[in-house]
Structures are given as C-alpha cells and as structure tokens.
Amino acid sequence: MIVKKYVADSVSEAMKQIRSELGRDAVILDSKPVKVGGWMGLFAKKKVEVMAAVDSPAPSQSSQEQMMPSASAGQQPSAEPALHRQVLAELREMKQAFAQYALHHQTHWPAAHRKLADFLMSQDIHPTLVYDWLEQVQSHVAGDAPWAAVRQCGAETITKWLSGHIGPPIQDETRIVHFVGPTGVGKTTTIAKIAADYVLNRRVAVGLITIDTYRIAAVEQLRTYANILDIPIEVVFSPQEFRQAIRRLERCSLILMDTAGRNYLNPMHLSELKPYLQHGMPSETYVVLSAVAKSDDLLALAKQFASLPNRKLILTKLDETCKFGNLFNLLHQCSMPLAYLTNGQSVPDDLAVAEAEALTKWLLGGLEDD
Q1: How far is CA 69 from CA 38, 43, 114, in A?
Q2: What DSSP designation does 274 have?
Q3: Based on the number of CB atoms within 10 Å of its own CB, is 152 exposed (0-12), middle (13-18) or buried (19 or more)?
Q4: Backbone phi, psi, residue 351, to 5°
Q5: Which has the closest alpha carbon to 25: 59, 57, 60, 61?
Q6: pLDDT of residue 203
Q7: pTM for the complete prediction?
Q8: Number of independent structural domains in the chain
C-alpha cells in the first residue's frame, strides 16, 4: 500500500494531484488546514494537507517466492489476505466519509455546480459518486458557465459512467435463461414480458420452465401467459424432473426459467437453487431486484448471487419510486452489469433494454433545464 501526503491550495487541487499520481482508486485518510511559509508566524499562506493511500501493485511471482517462506519450512498460512480486505474496507469507508464532508463544505463551488451536487445528493446517490462526477464536471465546465451547460455536462458525465455498468440483453447463443431474486420483485411478470417480446416481435420459439412450486398462484400466472402466447410450459418439482423437462423442450430455441422467490440472504436457499443451474447448456442468470428496495438490501442480495456464472441485473418497479440513487449505488458497488429495466405491469410494453442515456434521463428528470 502506498501512502502519500499532499499540500495544496484547496481540497479540489489536492484531489487533482492525488488522482494524477495515485489514480482514481486512491482513498483519503485525513485532511486538515495548515499554514505554509511566512516569517515568525506572519504572512503564512493557508493551505490544506491531505493524506491519501492506494493499494500498491501486487508483487511479481518471483518476488513472492523470495519474500514468502516455503510450505516445507513449517509456516502456517498467512492471515494477510483477510487483514488486507479489512484495511481496504476501512479505506473505502474513509473515502465515503471524506466525500460526504467535502460535498457539504465546498462553499466555493459555483452556484450551478452546487445545484447539481445538491440534486444528486437528494436522490440518495452515494457521496463518493457525486464527488467524482462533480470533479469531472468542474474540469470541463468553467465556474461562470450557465446552468444549462453544467446540467448537460453532468448528464454526459453520468451517461459515460453508466456505459461501463450496462450489459447486453440475452445473447443469441444463449439457450436457457434463469431468473432469480427475492419475493415480490416481479420475476414472473418480467419473464412474461421477455417471452412476449421474443415470441411476438422476434418470432423465436420460446419455452417456459417454472420451479416455483411454493406458490400455486405463480405457476398459474405463468401458465396463463404461456396459453396466451401459445408456447409450452413445464412445471418442475426436482432436479431430476428438470432434466426431463429440458429434453421435452428441445425444439425451443430459448428457454426461460422461473424460480421461487426466497429470502436469498439465507445462503441455504441459494444452495437449493444451484442444482437447477448446472445443466451444461449456454445460459445466463438474471438477478431480478426491485427499485423500491433500500441500497443496503440491494447490495447484500447482489453479493449473495456473486458466485453465479454469467449473471446480469434486471431492475423492476422503476415506476414506483421517485428516487433512483439506490440503483446507481448498486451499480457502483457490485460487479453485475444491468441488462433490463421494467416500469409497470403491462405485458410486454413495460420492459426496456438498459441504456445509459435513458437511465440518466430518468435520474435527472426532476432537474429543470433553467
């Protein structure tokens, strides 16, 4: 880990130096006002001293071999990885705390920049994200620029950031798609929307499988959609029956699989699901989460599904909230790309492939142009 001290005229200037030398992953450990120069305490200039740190590059294999004792030497496995993760977690918390402090004390920011920052904070966007975005806006838009220019630059900055967190929809080579997620997020309705799109608009042969035998209503709901679309559906009660159902749907180009809504914060429920995901066919797994859930709950659920292969996100119920910060925070803190959004109950209309520009417009929809 590299730790360095910076002295600059302002926090913003120090941050520029830090980002230039240590990169965007650097975190702030401490900051304080200091006086520099002068004579006998007179005429000293006010500065800010910022302590920053960044995780240092991993040593090469040869270096590790030289530094680490061999197993034959009788050494016990080091606890360093766990300690390393703990330190990084603490550094991230410090970075968030500093960003929050900086956002509330940047009184020198121009009014238009301050207006954008305040709006993003009101949307419950993570302080680190807001601070990073505003820094980029300030580097491109002069302090005396009109509000419209600041808003436009803000939108472009957010859209560019989002583009790195958006994933493609179902790929052509995919044969089976699993839909997983907690109770009440709208998995079954989302499956119906995607099935209707592929059957009616793309003319693809689609089959449905449901292993959600905990709720009879869910089975009947999916069966109703299957009858309307005139596509086959299989109701499965065990992994053995699942393999048989797959064979019966062999003529389908795409199979969509509904799963039971469970409390997936309990690892046991996820372990019960995994046998149904091990079939050897090209597949994708969509984690379906609700836009009305709290940021911490969304992140906890996303982490539970981190071990699933080829996973993507579907965010539902965007029409049931006026704040979208939790969605951006989720994309900021987890590695799953966002593929689809839903914003209503209508099948198949209220389904959209995730697009960075559209999501930015949703976020900034309550921010007037003038």
Answers
A1: 52, 56, 54
A2: G
A3: middle
A4: -135, 135
A5: 57
A6: 94
A7: 0.71
A8: 2
